[in-house]
Amino acid sequence: MRPRSPGLLLLLLCGLRAEIQEEEIRAMVGSDVLLSCIYPEGNTFDLNDLYVYWQINVPGKRNTSSVVTYYLSGNSSAGHGNNHYKDRARLSLDSMKQGDFSLHLHNVTPQDEQKFNCLVFRKSLELEKILEVTVTLNVAANYSMPVVSGPSQDEELVFTCTSTDGYPRPNVYWINKTDNSLLDDALQNSTVSLNARGLYNVVSVLRIRRSPTIDVGCCIENVLLHQNLTSGQTEMSTGTKDSITEDPVDDTQDAVNQPVLSILAVLVVAVAVAVATGWLCRRRCPYRSYAGAQAARPELELTGQFARREGDPWRKRGSTGELGAPLSLCPPFSAGATR
């Protein structure tokens, strides 16, 4: 007669020992994970010849186990012994035929962080245990980026750091950002609590003496994920969000100076443009005194050496000096013109 209770049958089989395989895996909260339990010799199996159990130890009760899910010979599907794993723990019947008795665990929670034991027995071998695997599941969750608020306006500076929804329990540090040194633990008071999701929330309060230049940061360390999150900017108690090291007086002065600097820049550019324009005009159209008949000399030179240099129409060097521009841009002076 076959026992109807999977727990009772498992108790009867506990005395049969097999070599235990062990492995350790990690999963994030809310993810799906596969707990491996594979027969090493690659045999195929008849499901009617198998008894398969996945179990965990009951917290606070030594040598007491709770069945997560199981498969009994002759069943058409797997069953569940622990309501916490109902609809979350699953065995694949097709995979078990190939010697793969792995557990598919959905929507991992912090309570899943424990050791899972896989036990496989064969009925044809007088319920001999052919496989035993222990899988240690470590659960982790990312903390939120720490946010620092403060400082207060008292003689003593008070900063508050908060971070939420992480796992496992974190380490909390306060650092001096000027030299990245750790501040004394005696200056801080940290509270770590579990929320409704089974994840950790952190609140840490730092109290230090006021200093003209103070720049501190809060660091949340998740040891399992090898992750350090350090606060960026500090949320001031007045409601503004500025870096701790910023001086509000300097901000006001910068706000006043900015339009003045803009006006000065415009004036400098305008003066530079005016000077450049005047210089170009004087270069192209120089003022000269009336020289009588010599004013007609450039026209005569067009038929000489200057006319032969068509590739360079703007310059000509000779005994009379330099012609600075085409004659059409600078008309000859009349006899009655004044400077």
From TrEMBL:
Domain Ig-like: 6-134
Gene: LOC111186264
Species of the source: Delphinapterus leucas
Name this polypeptide is given: ICOS ligand
TM annotation in the entry: 260-281
Keywords assigned: Adaptive immunity, B-cell activation, Cell membrane, Disulfide bond, Glycoprotein, Immunity, Immunoglobulin domain, Membrane, Signal, Transmembrane, Transmembrane helix
Protein family: Belongs to the immunoglobulin superfamily. BTN/MOG family.
First and last residue of the signal peptide: 1-22
UniProt superkingdom: Eukaryota
Single Gene Ontology MF annotation: identical protein binding
Taxonomy of the source species: Eukaryota, Metazoa, Chordata, Craniata, Vertebrata
Location(s), subcellular: Cell membrane
Listed GO CC annotations: external side of plasma membrane
Region (Disordered): 308-339
Membrane topology: Single-pass type I membrane protein
Database matches in Gene3D superfamilies: Immunoglobulins
Short name of one Pfam family: C2-set_3
Chief place of localization: membrane
Biological processes, Gene Ontology terms: adaptive immune response; B cell activation; positive regulation of activated T cell proliferation; regulation of cytokine production; T cell receptor signaling pathway; T follicular helper cell differentiation
PANTHER family xrefs: BUTYROPHILIN, ICOS LIGAND
InterPro entries documented for this protein: BTN3A2-like_Ig-C, Ig-like_dom, Ig-like_dom_sf, Ig-like_fold, Ig_sub, Ig_V-set, IgSF_BTN/MOG
